[in-house]
Amino acid sequence: MKPTLVTGASGFVGWHVARSLLEKGHHVRALVRPGSKVPGLDVELVTGDLRNPASLATAATGCGLVFHVAADYRLWSPRKGTNASSEMYSTNVDGVRNMLTAAQTAGVDRVVYTSTVGCIGVPHNGIGNETLPCTLEEMAGDYKRSKFMGEQVALEFAAKGLPVVIVNPTAPMGDHDFKPTPTGQIVVDFLRGAMPAYIDTGLNVVNVKDVATGHLLACERGKAGERYILGSENLTLGQILRQLAEITHRKAPTIELPYFVAWLAGAVGEAVANVTGKPPRASLEAVRMAKKKMWVTHEKAAKELGYAPQPARNALADAVDWFQKQ
């Protein structure tokens, strides 16, 4: 069997994709940066960087499948001494082009590209799906903008014949959220008692294990050039916090902040963070993103891929268990 290349296997979603592939008997080749590891998984490590085309060509050589999961996922970064925006676009846009070029040159059989629910059109107070239009101008912040542009690159390659399938995970939660991700940080803040209030926003919460399964289903049954939402349940932030309270037997915050108060708090917190170098509790980009409820349906993935996610509560329980053990 040819190796299966996974980028981002040292991260949250990529780690679970790699584990799911190993469970299916794949020989997993993991592209990692120098010094990075894939803890607990028996994978072949290949050192490289999405901004280095030569390293990607080496990693993709001889592979049958490629799962391009890696991305620069952060909603705040220090501005001193680095151009964070430039780094994000280099990874999330140019890096996609570099990886797909390497896959094309290597003649792989299939590529699964991990996009984000942020690239899905969601009507005001409605439910989004893969067919609704969405534009770059609607993207709030560098992360969403760069991922939208990266998805367009993937669609361009698919239009030219590369067998690329796109998956759009919603808000994954669960175990092995190493950093943690911004969504996992919600659970961490709750456990630390660092969330005295919340705002009126909404997420589609999904277990990261289901997201990984969805990647494999997209590879097996997905149509090239198509997008598939990998989600589970639409919940308000208040509902998420109440479920966390039930799971942990703690009290959920009861104060709902008006949006403008959250924006002011984000602005002040980010100003302080840019001086101290310590991440703010909520960045301005996170507050702007929260203004819109990202509620979607995974109906297409269910019908075409056989995708059947578990309840969101299981994802929250897995995340709580993981973070408490850490």
Strand order of the largest sheet: 3-2-1-4-5-6-10
Distance between the termini: 36 Å
The average pLDDT is 90
CATH-defined superfamily of the domain at 4-175 and 206-232 and 295-309: NAD(P)-binding Rossmann-like Domain
Shape: globular
Q: Radius of gyration in whole Å, from Cα? A: 19 Å
- Give the fraction of residues assigned to helices: 40-55%
**Can you tell me the CATH class of the domain at 4-175 and 206-232 and 295-309?**
Alpha Beta
Largest beta-sheet details: 7 strands, parallel
Order of helical and strand elements: EHEEHEHEHEEHEEHEEHEHHHH
How much beta, percentage-wise?
A: 15-25%
In terms of structural class, how would the helical and strand content be classed?
alpha/beta
Number of helices: 11
Spans of 5+ residues with little confidence (pLDDT < 50)?
Answer: none
Descriptors:
single chain; Rossmann fold; 326 residues; 7-stranded parallel β-sheet; alpha/beta; 16% strand; 3-stranded mixed β-sheet
